[in-house]
């Protein structure tokens, strides 16, 4: 069970919420019955709408943040599939929950301060997400040995994918900064995404340990002909 109820994500161009009752009432031949939403082409001119129906150019700071958040969530789907293949059900569950938190973050970013109070309340950022991320960092991090050297991304497919996700998460953080400066989003949203990158780093190390792989530590490449990479098992 998820720890919170997700706010509906109904803004055009990003997510589409369909109630069960509506689905039952759709007649055969309707576009929705064929697996995609109506209203295609509304963004062909280079502009699209936020949750309050305000249209902006697609390179607006809000859409930059939304695009990066969507990319991270999509990549976490790959990470989740890798974790499932490795039998890491705990990591898989955490990643799915993180994806849900990212959708909440996206809905918050897509609701400008000029929106109605009802819409702002609907997509208000839940600070409980920050508390949950911190708890997950402690839960997985407590099982890991101390980190005394820089490590290189790797340690098996799942670990490597998670470390890449961490880098994408850092990009999301950078995309949120302009919105923070403009006071367009809650400052806790930036705190959440910063901690999320820490969580992904910890999960990468955890996956490396649980799959029996080794971490490669950084070595100053002063002589490429005599490098001896240091690896160690996390067990």
Concise synopsis of the structure shown:
By secondary structure, the chain is mainly α.
Key phrases:
235 residues, mainly alpha, Hypothetical Protein Ta1238, Chain: A, 3-stranded antiparallel β-sheet, 6% strand, disordered N terminus
How does this model look, in words?
- By secondary structure, this protein is mainly alpha-helical.
- It has a domain at 56-218: Up-down Bundle (Hypothetical Protein Ta1238, Chain: A).
- The protein contains 7 helices and 5 strands.
- The chain has helices at residues 20-25, 61-85, 89-109, 117-122, 128-141, 157-181, 187-210; strands at residues 47-49, 55-57, 151-152, 214-217, 231-233.
- A 3-stranded antiparallel sheet has the order 3-4-5, covered by helices on one side. A two-stranded antiparallel ribbon has the order 1-2.
- Strand 1 and strand 2 (55-57) form a beta hairpin.
- The chain is elongated.
- It starts with 19 loop residues before the first helix and ends with a strand.
């Amino acid at each position: 069970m998820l720890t919170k109820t997700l706010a509906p994500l109904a803004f055009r161009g990003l997510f589409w919420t369909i109630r069960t009752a509506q689905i039952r009432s759709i007649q055969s031949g309707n576009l929705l019955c064929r697996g995609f939403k109506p209203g295609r082409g509304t963004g062909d001119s280079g502009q699209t709408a936020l949750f309050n129906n305000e249209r902006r150019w697609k390179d607006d700071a809000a859409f930059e943040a939304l695009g990066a958040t969507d990319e991270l969530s999509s990549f976490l789907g790959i990470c989740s599939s890798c974790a499932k293949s490795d039998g890491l059900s705990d990591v898989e569950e955490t990643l799915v929950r993180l994806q849900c938190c990212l959708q909440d973050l996206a809905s918050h970013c897509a609701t400008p301060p000029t929106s109605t109070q009802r819409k702002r309340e609907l997509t208000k950022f839940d600070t409980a997400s920050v508390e949950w991320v911190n708890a997950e960092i402690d839960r997985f991090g407590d099982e890991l040995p101390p980190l005394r050297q820089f490590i290189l991304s790797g340690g098996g497919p799942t670990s490597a994918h998670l470390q890449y996700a961490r880098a994408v998460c850092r990009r999301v953080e950078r995309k949120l900064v302009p919105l923070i400066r403009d006071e367009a989003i809650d400052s806790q949203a930036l705190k959440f995404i910063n901690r999320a990158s820490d969580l992904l780093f910890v999960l990468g190390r955890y996956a490396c340990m649980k799959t029996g792989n080794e971490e490669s530590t950084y070595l100053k490449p002063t002589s490429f002909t005599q490098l001896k990479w240091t690896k160690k098992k996390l067990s």
